[in-house]
Amino acid sequence: MNLGFIGLGNMGSAIAGNLLKDGHQMLAWNRSPEAVGRLVALGARAASTPAEAMRAEVVFSMLANDEVVEAVIVSSGALAAARPGAIHVNLATVSVAFAERMEVLHEQRSVAYVAAPVLGRPDLAAAGGLAVLAAGAPDAVEKVRPLLALVGAHTWPLGERAHLANVVKIACNFSLASMIETLGEAGALAKAHGVEPAALYEVMTNTLFAAPAYKTYAALIAEERFEPAGFKLPLGLKDVRLALQAGEAKHVPLPVASLLRDHLLAAIAAGDSEKDWSALSQVAFRNAGL
Predict the structure, then answer these.
(1) Does residue 250 have an active-site annotation?
(2) Which domains does the chain have, with CATH numbers?
(3) Is the dihedral of CA 227, 229, 232, 233 positive or negative?
(4) CA angle, 66 as apex, 243 and 42 as ends, to 5°?
(5) How far apart are CA 110 and CA 64, in angstroms?
(6) Angle between helices 233-249 and 163-192 (to 10 degrees)
(7) What is the C-alpha end-to-end distance of the chain, expressed in Å?
C-alpha cells in the first residue's frame, strides 16, 4: 500500500519502521531531517513537504499536540492537498475539541479521518506491542485495520466519531498520571519510615497492582531512571490539561487532575522538564523532605 507518514519522534519513528517492515511504500516527512534519513535507510522515501506525504492513499501522523497538528496538517495546506477518498490516521493525543474540528475539516475535503491514539512507550512501539484506540467511519477503520495490526498488538474500536478515541486516550493518560502520583506518595511514606521504595513496589506490583504499567513505572521510580525520557514531563502536563479541558466541557469535576497539573508544574519548575514523566513521583519525595 502507498503510505505517508508525518512526524518521526520516538514513537512515530518506531511505528513507521514497523509499517515499512511489512513491505509498504512510504513517503515520510519530519521537521528535522535526521529522523527521515534513518527511515530512508529502511526503505522509505523522503517527502519535501507535509503536503507531499499527505497525497498518499493512507497517511499516518504522529505530532506533539493540537498546535503542531494545526500547523503541519491544516495551515500548511497538507490537508488541502490530500486526494479525495484518502484516509488520514491521526495517532497523536489531541484535545477532544480539536479532534471534533478535525472531523469536520476532513469531511469537507472528502478525506476519511481515523483517530488512533496509542497506549504504550517507545520500546513497546518498536516491538509492535502498543494498544491502539481506533474510532472513525467503520469502512475507513476496517480498511486500515491490517495496518493498525502492525502498529499494536490489539486494536480497540470505539465508535464512528473519531474524537471518541481521544476521549478514551485522555482518560487513560489521566489514570496513568494518577498512578505515578500514587506511587510517589506511597514511596515517600515508606521511605520516611525506613522502608526502601523498591521493597514497597515489589510487594505492590506482585499483589495489589500486578499490571504492566505499574511494574514499568514502579521500576523507573525505584531506580530514579528518568533519563533518557520515553515520555517527557511537559507532554504529561499537556495530557492532564486535556483531561481538565474535557472535564470542564461536560461539567465533570476532576480534582485529582488539578493536583496533578500543579505537581507537574512543580516538577518542571524544579528543572525536570527533560525527564520522563515518571519523575512526577519526585515531587512527593521532595515535599516530604526526602
Answers:
(1) no
(2) 2-161 (3.40.50.720), 167-287 (1.10.1040.10)
(3) negative
(4) 115
(5) 25
(6) 120
(7) 54
How many residues are present in the chain? 290
Q: What is the pTM of this model?
A: 0.95
Q: Report CA torsion sign: 37, 39, 43, 46.
A: negative
- Per the CB < 8 A criterion, the answer to whether 139 and 113 are in contact is no
How does pLDDT run across 119-159, given as a tens digit for each residue?
999 999 999 999 999 999 999 999 999 999 999 999 999 99
Other C-beta atoms lying within 10 Å of the C-beta of residue 227: 12
pLDDT in tens, 62-75: 999 999 999 999 99
Give the active site residue among 21, 169, 232, 275: 169
> CA-CA distance, 29 to 127, in Å (whole number)?
22
Closest CA to 270 of 87, 197, 262, 132: 262
Which residues lie below 8 Å from residue 71, measured CB to CB, with a gap of 6+? none
Residue 166: pLDDT band with limits 50, 70, 90: very high
Task: Give the up-direction half-sphere exposure of residue 52: CA atoms within 13 A in the CB hemisphere.
Answer: 10
C-alpha cell at 187: 514511596
